[in-house]
Design brief:
Layout (H helix, E strand, L loop, with lengths): L9 E6 L7 E6 L5 E2 L1 H9 L24
Antiparallel strand pairs: 1-2, 2-3
């Protein structure tokens, strides 16, 4: 499998939380990102953000407005 962040190699790991049973998951060897079936299900359930290229007002790259306010 490939990492969705950096396209690196994923290895199988066992993740444990205090008092919870262990869960099988994956860890990227390059960037260290971890994922498991629960994380993948949440990614599928939520839609991708809409990126329209607009810059928020006040950002350094935003151009000042011309004329009276």
């Amino acid at each position: 499998m490939q990492c969705i962040r950096c396209r690196g190699l994923l290895i199988a790991i066992q993740m444990r939380d205090m008092g919870q049973p262990s869960v099988s998951g994956w860890r990227c060897l390059l960037c260290g990102a971890t994922t498991d079936p629960g994380i993948e299900a949440n990614r599928v359930r939520h839609s991708q953000p809409i990126r329209n290229g607009a810059r928020p007002p006040g950002s350094p790259a935003a151009k000042p407005r011309k004329g009276p306010r």
